[in-house]
Design goal:
Cytochrome Bc1 Complex, Chain D, domain 2; 332 residues; 3% strand; disordered N terminus; mainly alpha; two-stranded antiparallel sheet; 2 domains; 13 helices
Protein backbone atom coordinates (compact mmCIF):
# COMPACT_ATOMS: atom_id res chain seq x y z
CA UNK A 1 0.00 0.00 0.00
CA UNK A 2 2.85 2.39 0.89
CA UNK A 3 4.57 1.63 -2.42
CA UNK A 4 1.39 2.33 -4.38
CA UNK A 5 0.84 5.60 -2.52
CA UNK A 6 4.41 6.72 -3.12
CA UNK A 7 4.23 5.80 -6.80
CA UNK A 8 1.07 7.86 -7.24
CA UNK A 9 2.57 10.86 -5.42
CA UNK A 10 5.70 10.76 -7.59
CA UNK A 11 3.59 10.68 -10.76
CA UNK A 12 1.32 13.53 -9.64
CA UNK A 13 4.27 15.68 -8.56
CA UNK A 14 5.91 15.00 -11.92
CA UNK A 15 2.80 16.17 -13.76
CA UNK A 16 2.49 19.29 -11.63
CA UNK A 17 6.15 20.15 -12.13
CA UNK A 18 5.57 20.01 -15.89
CA UNK A 19 2.77 22.54 -15.45
CA UNK A 20 0.96 21.10 -18.47
CA UNK A 21 3.17 23.04 -20.89
CA UNK A 22 2.92 21.98 -24.52
CA UNK A 23 5.00 22.44 -27.62
CA UNK A 24 4.56 21.64 -31.28
CA UNK A 25 5.28 18.06 -32.16
CA UNK A 26 8.09 16.76 -34.26
CA UNK A 27 7.05 15.12 -37.50
CA UNK A 28 5.29 11.84 -36.81
CA UNK A 29 7.21 8.88 -38.14
CA UNK A 30 4.86 6.00 -37.44
CA UNK A 31 2.38 3.82 -39.30
CA UNK A 32 -0.26 6.53 -39.61
CA UNK A 33 0.97 9.89 -40.85
CA UNK A 34 -0.71 13.23 -40.22
CA UNK A 35 -2.22 14.67 -43.43
CA UNK A 36 -0.65 17.98 -44.44
CA UNK A 37 -3.93 19.86 -44.11
CA UNK A 38 -4.60 18.57 -40.59
CA UNK A 39 -3.63 20.56 -37.49
CA UNK A 40 -0.19 20.01 -36.00
CA UNK A 41 -0.16 17.28 -33.38
CA UNK A 42 0.73 18.65 -29.97
CA UNK A 43 2.68 16.61 -27.43
CA UNK A 44 3.28 17.64 -23.79
CA UNK A 45 6.79 18.96 -23.17
CA UNK A 46 7.28 16.26 -20.55
CA UNK A 47 6.33 13.50 -23.03
CA UNK A 48 7.60 14.44 -26.47
CA UNK A 49 7.17 12.11 -29.41
CA UNK A 50 9.80 9.56 -30.36
CA UNK A 51 9.50 6.57 -32.65
CA UNK A 52 10.80 4.32 -29.86
CA UNK A 53 8.06 5.48 -27.47
CA UNK A 54 5.39 5.00 -30.14
CA UNK A 55 6.64 1.48 -30.88
CA UNK A 56 6.71 0.59 -27.18
CA UNK A 57 3.22 2.00 -26.76
CA UNK A 58 1.98 -0.05 -29.70
CA UNK A 59 3.30 -3.23 -28.06
CA UNK A 60 1.86 -2.33 -24.66
CA UNK A 61 -1.52 -1.59 -26.27
CA UNK A 62 -2.05 -5.31 -26.87
CA UNK A 63 -0.31 -6.47 -23.67
CA UNK A 64 -2.67 -8.34 -21.33
CA UNK A 65 -0.22 -8.50 -18.45
CA UNK A 66 -1.17 -4.90 -17.68
CA UNK A 67 -4.47 -6.22 -16.29
CA UNK A 68 -4.80 -7.83 -12.89
CA UNK A 69 -5.67 -11.30 -14.16
CA UNK A 70 -3.93 -11.07 -17.55
CA UNK A 71 -7.31 -11.21 -19.28
CA UNK A 72 -7.59 -7.91 -21.16
CA UNK A 73 -5.49 -5.29 -22.88
CA UNK A 74 -6.27 -1.83 -24.26
CA UNK A 75 -7.03 -3.53 -27.58
CA UNK A 76 -9.67 -5.73 -25.97
CA UNK A 77 -12.05 -2.77 -25.96
CA UNK A 78 -10.36 -0.37 -28.38
CA UNK A 79 -10.33 -2.84 -31.26
CA UNK A 80 -8.19 -1.86 -34.27
CA UNK A 81 -10.65 -3.51 -36.68
CA UNK A 82 -13.39 -1.22 -35.36
CA UNK A 83 -11.32 1.96 -35.68
CA UNK A 84 -10.16 1.51 -32.08
CA UNK A 85 -13.70 1.44 -30.69
CA UNK A 86 -15.69 -1.58 -29.49
CA UNK A 87 -18.41 -3.46 -31.32
CA UNK A 88 -20.65 -4.00 -28.30
CA UNK A 89 -22.91 -1.49 -26.51
CA UNK A 90 -20.91 -1.90 -23.28
CA UNK A 91 -17.66 -3.80 -22.82
CA UNK A 92 -16.66 -6.57 -20.44
CA UNK A 93 -13.79 -5.76 -18.12
CA UNK A 94 -11.99 -7.61 -15.31
CA UNK A 95 -14.06 -10.33 -13.64
CA UNK A 96 -16.93 -9.93 -16.13
CA UNK A 97 -17.60 -6.41 -14.88
CA UNK A 98 -19.00 -4.15 -17.58
CA UNK A 99 -18.45 -0.55 -18.56
CA UNK A 100 -21.31 1.87 -17.99
CA UNK A 101 -20.92 3.52 -21.39
CA UNK A 102 -20.02 2.60 -24.92
CA UNK A 103 -16.27 2.59 -25.57
CA UNK A 104 -15.46 5.49 -27.96
CA UNK A 105 -12.94 5.42 -30.79
CA UNK A 106 -9.37 6.54 -30.16
CA UNK A 107 -9.08 7.93 -33.69
CA UNK A 108 -7.71 11.50 -33.67
CA UNK A 109 -7.59 11.53 -29.87
CA UNK A 110 -4.40 13.56 -30.30
CA UNK A 111 -6.58 16.62 -30.94
CA UNK A 112 -8.91 16.22 -27.96
CA UNK A 113 -8.69 18.62 -25.03
CA UNK A 114 -10.98 16.59 -22.76
CA UNK A 115 -11.69 12.87 -22.69
CA UNK A 116 -14.53 10.46 -21.94
CA UNK A 117 -18.17 11.00 -22.87
CA UNK A 118 -18.65 13.45 -20.00
CA UNK A 119 -15.30 15.25 -20.36
CA UNK A 120 -14.09 14.01 -16.98
CA UNK A 121 -10.60 13.31 -18.34
CA UNK A 122 -8.33 16.33 -18.69
CA UNK A 123 -4.88 14.81 -19.20
CA UNK A 124 -4.26 11.80 -21.43
CA UNK A 125 -1.16 10.54 -19.62
CA UNK A 126 -2.79 10.82 -16.22
CA UNK A 127 -5.99 9.17 -17.41
CA UNK A 128 -4.16 6.16 -18.85
CA UNK A 129 -2.05 5.87 -15.70
CA UNK A 130 -5.18 5.76 -13.55
CA UNK A 131 -6.72 3.14 -15.84
CA UNK A 132 -3.96 0.75 -14.82
CA UNK A 133 -5.34 0.78 -11.28
CA UNK A 134 -9.04 1.51 -11.67
CA UNK A 135 -11.24 -1.47 -10.68
CA UNK A 136 -13.44 -0.68 -13.68
CA UNK A 137 -10.51 -1.02 -16.09
CA UNK A 138 -7.29 -3.00 -15.39
CA UNK A 139 -7.67 -3.24 -11.59
CA UNK A 140 -3.96 -3.75 -11.12
CA UNK A 141 -1.15 -2.62 -8.82
CA UNK A 142 1.46 -0.53 -10.63
CA UNK A 143 4.23 -2.31 -8.71
CA UNK A 144 3.00 -5.65 -10.05
CA UNK A 145 2.92 -4.27 -13.60
CA UNK A 146 6.52 -3.07 -13.30
CA UNK A 147 7.57 -6.42 -11.81
CA UNK A 148 5.96 -8.32 -14.68
CA UNK A 149 7.53 -6.13 -17.35
CA UNK A 150 10.95 -6.39 -15.73
CA UNK A 151 10.82 -10.17 -16.13
CA UNK A 152 10.69 -9.83 -19.93
CA UNK A 153 14.05 -8.88 -21.53
CA UNK A 154 12.27 -7.68 -24.67
CA UNK A 155 10.43 -5.00 -22.69
CA UNK A 156 13.60 -4.07 -20.83
CA UNK A 157 15.18 -3.26 -24.19
CA UNK A 158 12.16 -1.38 -25.49
CA UNK A 159 11.93 0.80 -22.37
CA UNK A 160 15.67 1.51 -22.58
CA UNK A 161 15.33 2.62 -26.20
CA UNK A 162 12.28 4.75 -25.43
CA UNK A 163 13.38 6.39 -22.18
CA UNK A 164 17.13 5.93 -21.99
CA UNK A 165 19.12 3.70 -19.69
CA UNK A 166 16.67 3.94 -16.78
CA UNK A 167 14.47 1.49 -14.97
CA UNK A 168 10.96 0.53 -16.01
CA UNK A 169 8.37 2.63 -14.18
CA UNK A 170 4.57 2.65 -14.30
CA UNK A 171 4.29 6.25 -15.45
CA UNK A 172 6.44 5.37 -18.47
CA UNK A 173 3.86 2.75 -19.42
CA UNK A 174 1.25 5.51 -19.49
CA UNK A 175 3.59 7.83 -21.40
CA UNK A 176 4.32 5.26 -24.12
CA UNK A 177 0.66 4.38 -24.53
CA UNK A 178 -0.22 8.08 -24.74
CA UNK A 179 2.31 8.64 -27.50
CA UNK A 180 1.07 5.64 -29.47
CA UNK A 181 -2.62 6.54 -29.39
CA UNK A 182 -1.79 10.10 -30.47
CA UNK A 183 -0.41 8.64 -33.71
CA UNK A 184 -3.83 7.21 -34.64
CA UNK A 185 -4.57 10.02 -37.07
CA UNK A 186 -7.41 9.51 -39.54
CA UNK A 187 -7.69 11.85 -42.50
CA UNK A 188 -7.48 9.79 -45.68
CA UNK A 189 -11.08 8.84 -46.46
CA UNK A 190 -12.74 9.15 -49.85
CA UNK A 191 -14.35 12.34 -48.55
CA UNK A 192 -10.87 13.72 -47.84
CA UNK A 193 -9.73 12.86 -51.34
CA UNK A 194 -12.82 14.62 -52.70
CA UNK A 195 -12.24 17.81 -50.73
CA UNK A 196 -8.60 17.78 -51.83
CA UNK A 197 -9.66 17.89 -55.48
CA UNK A 198 -10.36 14.31 -56.55
CA UNK A 199 -13.97 14.91 -57.55
CA UNK A 200 -14.43 11.33 -58.66
CA UNK A 201 -13.83 10.05 -55.13
CA UNK A 202 -17.52 10.44 -54.22
CA UNK A 203 -20.51 9.23 -56.21
CA UNK A 204 -23.67 11.25 -56.83
CA UNK A 205 -25.52 9.85 -53.81
CA UNK A 206 -22.60 10.63 -51.49
CA UNK A 207 -22.35 14.17 -52.84
CA UNK A 208 -26.06 14.72 -52.25
CA UNK A 209 -25.59 13.36 -48.73
CA UNK A 210 -22.62 15.67 -48.18
CA UNK A 211 -24.67 18.67 -49.24
CA UNK A 212 -27.42 17.62 -46.83
CA UNK A 213 -24.91 17.12 -44.03
CA UNK A 214 -23.50 20.64 -44.39
CA UNK A 215 -26.88 22.29 -44.93
CA UNK A 216 -28.97 24.36 -42.53
CA UNK A 217 -31.75 21.89 -43.10
CA UNK A 218 -30.06 19.12 -41.09
CA UNK A 219 -27.60 21.18 -38.98
CA UNK A 220 -25.37 18.08 -38.74
CA UNK A 221 -22.20 20.12 -39.20
CA UNK A 222 -23.07 22.58 -36.43
CA UNK A 223 -21.85 20.01 -33.88
CA UNK A 224 -19.97 17.54 -36.09
CA UNK A 225 -17.80 20.35 -37.36
CA UNK A 226 -14.40 20.90 -38.90
CA UNK A 227 -11.92 18.38 -40.23
CA UNK A 228 -12.41 16.21 -37.16
CA UNK A 229 -16.23 16.21 -37.38
CA UNK A 230 -16.66 17.21 -33.75
CA UNK A 231 -16.86 20.48 -31.85
CA UNK A 232 -15.66 18.70 -28.67
CA UNK A 233 -18.62 20.29 -26.87
CA UNK A 234 -21.43 18.67 -24.88
CA UNK A 235 -24.95 18.29 -26.20
CA UNK A 236 -28.15 16.42 -25.53
CA UNK A 237 -29.50 15.28 -28.89
CA UNK A 238 -32.54 13.35 -27.73
CA UNK A 239 -31.06 9.93 -28.39
CA UNK A 240 -31.70 8.29 -25.00
CA UNK A 241 -34.79 6.54 -23.73
CA UNK A 242 -33.73 6.71 -20.09
CA UNK A 243 -32.61 9.27 -17.52
CA UNK A 244 -30.24 7.36 -15.26
CA UNK A 245 -27.00 8.64 -16.85
CA UNK A 246 -26.68 12.40 -16.27
CA UNK A 247 -23.54 12.70 -18.42
CA UNK A 248 -21.73 16.03 -18.15
CA UNK A 249 -23.66 16.81 -14.96
CA UNK A 250 -21.35 14.48 -13.02
CA UNK A 251 -18.44 16.79 -13.88
CA UNK A 252 -20.04 20.23 -13.50
CA UNK A 253 -22.90 19.51 -11.04
CA UNK A 254 -24.98 21.90 -13.13
CA UNK A 255 -28.53 20.95 -14.07
CA UNK A 256 -27.87 22.73 -17.34
CA UNK A 257 -25.56 19.80 -18.24
CA UNK A 258 -27.86 16.93 -17.32
CA UNK A 259 -27.98 14.38 -20.11
CA UNK A 260 -25.28 16.06 -22.19
CA UNK A 261 -22.43 14.13 -23.74
CA UNK A 262 -19.40 15.02 -25.83
CA UNK A 263 -19.93 15.17 -29.59
CA UNK A 264 -18.26 12.06 -31.04
CA UNK A 265 -16.23 12.22 -34.21
CA UNK A 266 -17.95 10.83 -37.29
CA UNK A 267 -14.73 9.69 -38.90
CA UNK A 268 -14.82 5.93 -39.50
CA UNK A 269 -18.37 5.82 -38.15
CA UNK A 270 -19.11 2.91 -40.49
CA UNK A 271 -16.67 0.85 -38.37
CA UNK A 272 -17.62 1.97 -34.86
CA UNK A 273 -21.14 0.60 -34.36
CA UNK A 274 -22.99 0.59 -31.97
CA UNK A 275 -23.54 4.31 -31.52
CA UNK A 276 -24.15 6.95 -28.83
CA UNK A 277 -22.85 7.03 -25.26
CA UNK A 278 -24.81 3.91 -24.31
CA UNK A 279 -24.50 1.98 -27.57
CA UNK A 280 -28.28 2.00 -27.83
CA UNK A 281 -28.41 2.57 -31.58
CA UNK A 282 -26.93 -0.28 -33.56
CA UNK A 283 -27.11 0.94 -37.15
CA UNK A 284 -26.65 4.21 -38.99
CA UNK A 285 -30.24 3.82 -40.15
CA UNK A 286 -31.39 3.98 -36.52
CA UNK A 287 -29.26 7.06 -35.89
CA UNK A 288 -30.64 8.92 -38.90
CA UNK A 289 -34.24 7.85 -38.18
CA UNK A 290 -33.95 9.23 -34.64
CA UNK A 291 -32.72 12.60 -35.86
CA UNK A 292 -35.25 12.62 -38.68
CA UNK A 293 -38.10 12.47 -36.17
CA UNK A 294 -36.54 15.26 -34.10
CA UNK A 295 -35.13 13.09 -31.33
CA UNK A 296 -36.83 11.91 -28.18
CA UNK A 297 -38.15 14.21 -25.43
CA UNK A 298 -35.37 14.83 -22.93
CA UNK A 299 -34.41 17.56 -20.48
CA UNK A 300 -31.88 19.99 -21.99
CA UNK A 301 -32.36 18.68 -25.53
CA UNK A 302 -30.43 20.90 -27.93
CA UNK A 303 -32.61 23.40 -29.78
CA UNK A 304 -30.87 22.42 -33.04
CA UNK A 305 -32.60 19.04 -32.87
CA UNK A 306 -35.82 19.22 -34.87
CA UNK A 307 -37.78 17.14 -37.36
CA UNK A 308 -35.88 16.91 -40.64
CA UNK A 309 -38.59 15.41 -42.85
CA UNK A 310 -36.07 13.57 -44.97
CA UNK A 311 -37.48 11.06 -47.42
CA UNK A 312 -36.03 7.56 -47.76
CA UNK A 313 -33.77 8.55 -50.64
CA UNK A 314 -32.35 11.50 -48.70
CA UNK A 315 -31.76 9.38 -45.62
CA UNK A 316 -29.83 6.88 -47.72
CA UNK A 317 -27.79 9.66 -49.31
CA UNK A 318 -26.84 10.92 -45.86
CA UNK A 319 -25.83 7.42 -44.73
CA UNK A 320 -23.78 6.93 -47.88
CA UNK A 321 -21.92 10.16 -47.19
CA UNK A 322 -21.18 9.07 -43.63
CA UNK A 323 -19.71 5.85 -44.97
CA UNK A 324 -17.44 7.89 -47.23
CA UNK A 325 -15.70 9.08 -44.02
CA UNK A 326 -14.15 5.63 -43.62
CA UNK A 327 -10.37 5.75 -43.73
CA UNK A 328 -8.94 2.69 -45.49
CA UNK A 329 -5.96 2.77 -43.12
CA UNK A 330 -8.32 1.72 -40.35
CA UNK A 331 -9.93 -1.18 -42.19
CA UNK A 332 -8.38 -4.45 -41.10
Amino acid sequence: MIKIFFSNIVFIVFLISCNENITNSVNIDNKLIKPEDFPEVIFPVYNQYSKAKAFLGQKLFTEKLLSKDNSISCASCHKPEHAFADNTPISKMIGNNVTVRNVPTLVNIAYAKVFNWDGSGKNLEEMIYKDLMLPSVFDNDTNIIVERLNQIPYYQELFKEAFGNTQIEAYKVAYALSIYVRTLISGNSRYDRFRRGDYKALNESEIRGMNLFFSDRTNCSKCHSGLLFTDYQFHNTGTSTHYFDFGRFYVTNSNYDRGKFKTPTLRNIELTSPYKHNGEQITLEEVIDNYNMGGRPFINKDTLIKELNLNNSEKQDLINFLKSLTDENFKK
